[in-house]
Design a protein that fits this description.
Number of helices: 12
Oligomer: single chain
Strand content: 5-15%
Helix content: 40-55%
Shape: elongated
CATH class of the largest domain: Alpha Beta
Order of helices and strands: HHHHHHEHHEHHEEEEHH
Structural class: alpha/beta
């Protein structure tokens, strides 16, 4: 079909909804005009939703389910969009992460996603479901995205990954003893890779710890740097070197203050011995 816009479902939840709507329409051999007539919306509206330029309302999604015979699939997907499991801005970061030459992580309280076992990640997601923060479907979406991100690290050449974990990350029990044992093993295996560096920032660093919030710094193939930071409500990318460079410098200072990789691995192994 001429002038048919290519869709990228990984761009946003809105884009994923639009891609699914188009796929369902194509499976039935309907044009946008034909779907519009059946749903009682304009073809322009259908086009805007399919290309992610317009979010689907609950009425639109429910009507699409009825016309397409999809139960409540689209309605549930629309609800998940309005109560997203993934912070705004994060999909854009993931796209950069997949092509990064270097990734620098600092985390507090929880193992970073790229270093998590799926059992650990599942325990974290289950906790969020129990608190009512996300739905079970959203938890599944989080785990699927995490698996995709972890798989991207296996590309060739592999990105260099530097991870500094606050001591709280490895001391905080998540998912029970067996899950933590496997997670600590995963960290030592990560440290053995030729393209990684793992360090623990001990509690006694005190005021010498450079960051009080998680930090992710990405170096792209053209050697430009990008900062990704999160609040409780949204994620944000910062590309301006005037703001990124001081944090990159602080990260290097943190690495100098943290335990060496050898000392960090020995510390993690000692913690593992104390795990039943």
């Amino acid at each position: 079909m001429l002038n048919r816009k290519e869709l990228d479902p990984d761009r946003s939840p809105q884009a994923r909804f639009g891609e699914r709507l188009r796929t369902l329409r194509d499976e039935r051999g309907w044009t946008q005009d034909e779907l519009a007539e059946r749903m009682g919306f304009s073809a322009t509206h259908i086009s805007a939703v399919e290309t992610g330029r317009r979010p689907p309302t609950s009425r639109f999604a429910a009507r699409a389910d009825k016309v397409l015979g999809t139960g409540d699939r689209l309605e549930r997907q629309g609800q998940a969009m309005r109560h997203p499991s993934i912070l705004e801005g994060f999909p854009e970061y993931v796209a950069l992460e997949a092509h990064a030459s270097e990734i620098r992580l600092f985390e507090l309280g929880i193992i970073p996603g790229l270093l998590q076992t799926m059992e650990y990640a599942s325990a974290v997601a289950t906790g969020a479901v129990r608190r009512g923060a996300i739905t079970e479907q959203q938890a599944e979406e989080r785990l699927a995205l995490l698996a995709k991100r972890q798989a991207s690290l296996e590309r060739s050449p592999a990105p260099l990954v530097f991870a500094v974990l606050d001591e709280s990350c490895v001391r905080r029990p998540v998912g029970g003893a067996s899950v933590m044992t496997a997670q600590l093993d995963r960290l030592t295996e990560f440290a053995e890779l030729p393209s990684t560096v793992l360090q623990v920032a001990p509690f006694d660093l005190g005021e010498r710890r450079a960051f009080d919030l998680p930090v992710t710094l990405v170096t792209l193939a053209n050697r430009s740097h990008v900062l990704y930071a999160e609040s409780s409500q949204q994620g944000r990318l910062e590309r301006d070197i005037r703001f990124v460079q001081p944090l990159l410098t602080a990260y290097h200072q943190l690495q100098a203050e943290a335990q060496s990789q050898a000392a960090s691995v020995a510390f993690i192994k000692q913690l593992r011995k104390g795990t039943p």
